TrEMBL record:
Domain Metallo-beta-lactamase: 13-225
GO MF term list: hydrolase activity; RNA endonuclease activity
Protein known as: RNA-metabolising metallo-beta-lactamase
InterPro entries registered for this protein in UniProt: Beta_Casp, MBL, Metallo-B-lactamas, RibonucZ/Hydroxyglut_hydro, RMMBL
This protein's record includes keyword Hydrolase: yes
Start and end residues of each Beta-Casp domain: 253-378
Coiled coil: none
Annotated keywords: Hydrolase
Length: 464
């Protein structure tokens, strides 16, 4: 049996790991899109033949894990796609949104290429490819084993990263041996404001582990309510400006709304308009409301008392394009929460473009941003950023609240892995991280007693 790494190898995005069993069955773990500057070419070619892949196991709906599924189907994949029920519901909206965004963005890029006399780029996929892909999905609940082949048993374990996210445990059972492999995918954090904690998993021979924050610790668990409220007062009350919050449409947007809901319910939030400007986030909120099985007890108790964790006075959900554009011409202070969280696509780019040069405003980064994305440039303190081909001076304040991250830091990841007897793990592969981060995390894991920690390169193959 062998595994080959075709994405998220010494980088964060593009999660794709291909297992080939001794009987020749090909199992793909995730099929994510590469994101950030200079990744277009990486998304055009998989490095393997999609027609030869038999099964796809999907950990969660984030685009860097699911975003190339329609292209996989477009190029010939026709197998089953297994995921949790909530992940399927989210993919129904996120993959369609991805198709529309990349079509719009590519149209703009191709217009510039056409003007320069350059060759036009092809669409990764279109909406019809998404619908075809969705027809192949087979939802499976957490903690209930199922077979994807006569010799391969799979079980999903709650990862606590976003709604529906799961670690994937595979048992390869033949008359001659049994081997086990666990794919952590993205590891969530204990104490999430909405979701249950990540669940421990059985002993594994091999582990594929994310390493996004493998070299750092999140800031201490500050009073997020008070800090956010302080920014609202400084920006919206004192400076009469706008608080712009790039937020992932799934989980992060709902988390921000939940905090604002609590502040409003307690009478602490100033009476200013709050806008969730993202059709995707609006749909994701509806889906989240339907999947309370993933909630922790705190939010369930709040809903029992308050009636609604995602709706309050002065909160408006916007889907209409004209209503979104109108926000740029409203002079009054407000809070705008919009996707994407890395500010790399969607309506948030327009809001930042229209507000980043005004000193009255604040841009609040509340999650991980891949290197070279607009969010990462703002987070790094760049004095200018390029948006839609134009240089913009960064005059607005830029604030960061890392405590909102849905990715575990290195201590939290090591605690998550503590359910394992390290001497029984034959090899732990690090993915979904930048190489320097992975090297630092490897040293920490070796110090914890793991015998072998490997950092695979793009396209590298390993025998298990």
């Amino acid at each position: 049996m062998k595994i080959r790494f075709f994405g998220a190898a010494q980088r964060v995005t593009g999660s794709k790991h291909l297992i080939t069993t001794d009987s020749g069955t090909q199992i793909l773990l995730d099929c994510g899109m590469f994101q950030g500057i200079n990744t277009s070419e990486l998304n055009l070619s998989f490095g393997f033949d999609p027609k030869e892949v038999d099964i796809l196991l999907l950990s969660h709906a984030h685009i860097d894990h699911s975003g190339l599924i329609p292209r996989l189907v477009k190029q010939g994949f026709n197998g089953k796609i297994y995921c949790t029920p909530a992940t399927l519901d989210l993919c129904k909206i996120m993959l369609l949104d991805s198709a529309r965004i990349q079509e719009r963005d590519l149209d703009r890029v191709n217009q510039r290429r056409k003007n320069r006399g350059e060759e036009l780029l092809e669409y990764l996929y279109e909406e019809e490819d998404v619908y075809l892909a969705l027809s192949l999905f087979v939802p499976q609940p957490l903690n209930k084993p199922f077979y994807i082949d006569k010799d391969v048993k799979v079980e999903f374990y709650n990862a606590g990263h976003i709604l529906g996210s799961a670690g994937i445990y595979l048992s390869f059972e033949t008359p001659h041996y049994t081997k086990t492999l666990f794919f952590t995918a993205d590891i969530g954090r204990k104490g999430d404001r909405i979701l249950d904690d990540p669940a421990p998993f059985p002993q594994a021979d091999y582990i594929i582990c994310e390493s996004t924050y493998g070299d750092r610790l999140h800031e201490p668990d500050i009073d997020a309510h008070s800090r956010l409220l302080d920014m609202v007062y400084k920006t919206c009350v004192q400076k009469r400006g706008k608080l712009i919050i790039p937020a992932f449409a799934v989980d992060r947007t709902q988390e921000m709304v939940f905090i604002l809901d609590q502040l409003e319910s307690s009478g602490r939030l100033p009476s200013i308009p709050v806008y969730v400007d993202s059709p995707l986030a609006v749909e994701a909120t509806r889906i989240m409301i339907r999947h309370k099985e993933d909630y922790n007890q705190e939010i369930l108790d709040y809903i029992e008392k308050d009636g609604d964790a995602f709706g309050f006075k002065n909160l408006t959900y916007i889907t209409d394009v004209q209503a979104s554009k109108a926000l740029n011409f409203r002079p009054e202070p407000c809070i705008i929460i919009s996707a994407s969280g890395m500010a790399e696509a969607g309506r948030i780019k327009h809001h930042i473009a229209n507000n980043v040069e005004d000193r009255k405003n604040t841009i609040l980064i509340v999650g991980y941003c891949s290197p070279n994305t607009l969010g990462a440039q703002l987070k790094a303190g760049n004095s200018t950023v390029k948006i839609f081909g134009e240089d913009k001076l960064v005059r607005a304040d830029v604030e960061v609240m890392d405590s909102f991250s849905a990715h575990a830091d290195y201590k939290e990841m090591m605690e998550y892995l503590s359910c394992q007897k390290v001497e029984k793990v034959k090899n732990l592969f690090l993915v979904h991280g930048e190489i320097k981060t992975q090297e630092a995390f490897r040293e920490k894991l070796l110090g914890q007693g793991f015998r072998k920690v490997t950092i695979p390169a793009q396209g590298e193959v390993y025998e298990l």
